[in-house]
Amino acid sequence: MKKYLTLILFCFLVYSCGCEDRGAIDINVEFTEFESTIISSELNQENEFTNQNSEILNAQYSEFDSEPKVIPLNRDDCSVTFLDSTTIKMSFINEGIILTIAIEKNEQSLTSFVIFVNNDRFLLNTTEFEQNISEQQLTDYNSNGFTFNDIFNFEGISEFGINKIIYSIDNGIEFIEYENGNYLKLTE
User: Fold this and answer.
1) What is the domain range of residue 141?
2) Cα–Cα distance between 138 and 158 in angstroms, integer?
3) Among residues 126, 139, 136, 129, which one has the least CA distance to residue 168?
């Protein structure tokens, strides 16, 4: 009887000790040095884009956010996970188009880097949604007589007919291409 009582008491002590007793463990999943440079808070707030008819459209960056995403307390291992995350929005003021550029880590330390056009998702020219983002993914692109070097090439389909977005670390969104051949190009 004494053995059973000791065993029950031991089990009670082991299983009743919660995170409050041991303290929570913070787990930080951080960007690589390169990933941390992809979205800059220094992006020019006001931008002009020129379309295929040489008309000027105004766009504005806003809502820069680099707060980590927090995965709440995991009761199994008493951990709180902080995932690096950065977003910024760019709005074409008179067009109703809002682009959200987002990069974030997941719990496996893979990175998602996407651009949303309103609710439509554009992915890097790859089949992987989450991956390791590196300088090797920077590429060159030619379209409509323009050449873009060291850029990320995003592809998708939006309700506005957009099918390609060219993004550079230095300038943000540089080029937007439509299915019908129309485009918007960042003026220099």
Assistant:
1) 21-186
2) 23
3) 139
Place of tokens 């059973």: 4
**Count of structural domains, the chain:** 1
For residue 108, being part of any structural domain is answered with yes
The two beta strands, 25-29 and 130-131, are unpaired
- Is 64 part of any domain? yes
Q: pLDDT by residue (tens digit) across 145-184?
A: 999 999 999 999 898 999 999 999 999 999 999 999 999 9
The predicted pLDDT at position 125 comes to: 65
Is the CB of residue 88 less than 8 Å from the CB of residue 98? no
- For 103-132, the DSSP string reads EEE-TTS-EEEEEEETTEEEEESSS-SEE-
Say if strands 79-83 and 25-29 run parallel, antiparallel, or are unpaired: parallel
User: What confidence tens digit (pLDDT) does each residue in 64-102 have?
Assistant: 999 999 988 766 778 888 999 999 999 998 888 999 999
In tens, the pLDDT along 96-129 reads 899 999 999 988 888 989 999 998 999 886 556 6
For residue 67, how many other CB atoms are within 10 A of its CB?
10
Alpha carbon dihedral 8, 11, 15, 17, in 10-degree steps, equals 90
Domain assignment present for residue 39? The answer is yes
Q: Classify residue 156: in a domain, yes or no.
A: yes
Q: Which of 182, 185, 156, 151 is nearest to 167 (CA)?
A: 151
